Amino acid sequence: MRLGPRAEIFPSFLRYDFRAVGSQGLVRPRVVLFGDSITEQSFRPGGWGAALADTYSRKADVVVRGYGGYNTRWALFLIQHVFPLDGTAPPLATTIFFGANDAALLGRTSERQHVPVSEYKENLKRIVTLMQDCSNSMVIMLITPPPIDEEGRERSLYGENARKLPERTNEMAGVYAGQCIELAREMHIPCVNIWSKMQETEGWQTLYLSDGLHLTPEGNDVVHKEVVKTLRNAGLKSEEMPYDFPHHSKIDGSCPDKAFQ
Amino acid sequence: MRLGPRAEIFPSFLRYDFRAVGSQGLVRPRVVLFGDSITEQSFRPGGWGAALADTYSRKADVVVRGYGGYNTRWALFLIQHVFPLDGTAPPLATTIFFGANDAALLGRTSERQHVPVSEYKENLKRIVTLMQDCSNSMVIMLITPPPIDEEGRERSLYGENARKLPERTNEMAGVYAGQCIELAREMHIPCVNIWSKMQETEGWQTLYLSDGLHLTPEGNDVVHKEVVKTLRNAGLKSEEMPYDFPHHSKIDGSCPDKAFQ
Predict the structure, then answer these.
(1) DSSP letter string over B206-259?
(2) Residue B16 belongs to a domain
(3) Chain A within 8 Å of B23 (Cβ-Cβ)?
(4) What is the per-residue pLDDT across A12-32, written as a single tens digit (0 to 9) for each?
(5) CB-CB: which of B47, B81, B83 is closest to A6?
(6) What's the domain count of chain B?
(7) Residue B26 and residue A63: Cβ atoms within 8 Å?
(8) Does ipTM surpass 0.90 in this model?
(9) Is A203 near chain B, with CB under 8 Å?
(10) What CATH number did the domain enclosing B214 receive?
(11) B240 vs chain A: nearest CA distance in angstroms?
């Protein structure tokens, strides 16, 4: 990492070296969202990615790397491009949010996306390890797959005449969520258990899920709140992070250059 | 610009060299939003920045560089850091959205932010010229300041007992909008005339503005639609731009590596 020309405007007490300027020349640190469609769609109205970008407004850039339909096996083909090991400041934090597709059932309509649960855990471990190789200060956070509303999923896929053979079940999503949580514990990294969290609220099936799998604005809000809580616990409190340039109230209208010195 | 390892997956017919991989190692081109609070707040619920990020999902990253309270004079202190001339792939497109603060009236509560209209135009010209130096293929788009609802502004600043001395007027915002449009014409770059566009709709004062100046979700929607229309006219049609990695439907479940070769 090299220090940028504006390094002097940043306080030095922060855990992360916020002064580091990536070779992309933009001063702000990045938070990368890596995952499947639930990440890809996170900038739709009410989306948790957009909300996160607003939470860290002027403090960090939120970079979305969501790949709809992807499982952890396919994610491994991308990861070295999304997180190169050289030439750039690593992200400040990354969310890893896979499993909804891995947990698609064998013998059903989405079996092409299925990854056995043991391989899912192993793939997640490889993803985390590659990120740790990329940076030892990056906050790496796992997010479990969300719960599944089998009825909603069937209606969405097959219409009202659902043929009652769900391609995903909530029970199976829970098995994958469990492995995700176990891996986080083994690797000593934080994990958002969205599978359990959502099911704490009555009516979660339609309150939080739009088609039995993807998130409503309310579901996005749950993810946003949990991710922010986890980032804050890891030391990334927006209000303690420096603006990339002076707040306008610090600029003297008759002598603005002072604020930028 | 160097070509990335995945250059071969991009078609060659596109005007912009989408194959270029910035040294930040992320494959996607960037659209930068440079402006004041109306840009900074563009990832709030219903925001035009978040909507733009979704429009170009998996095609381009939307990078927000909005600085609340800033005028064009202060923006000039930032611009070389936001748009460095070396070391990185330049943005695919940039929106420049200043003027709301420049147009604050002298002798009123926000006069610290005031910039004379001739200097506003000159500053905008310097910003555009610096960007053109940064890249001759970047789509550079000006956006005029929005209209002002003086009553809404007074209520927001002074409560119901408004003292009837608005710090911004719609007429003055229109003068600055006019200079913005004239500059765009002189420099042969596109301009979104949001000042006029919004006033075409009856009730624009409260339909599009939340406090007489900043945007409601409906106002954000107008900006989003106009910006997308302008980007499309400049050749940046999302549906014609390549995915950074294969769409999941192109991946053979039993032989996924083929899709990534």
Answers:
(1) HHTBSSSSSBPHHHHHHHHHHHHHHHHHTT--GGGSPPSS--GGGS-TT-THHH
(2) no
(3) yes
(4) 222 333 333 333 344 689 999
(5) B81
(6) 1
(7) yes
(8) no
(9) no
(10) 3.40.50.1110
(11) 18
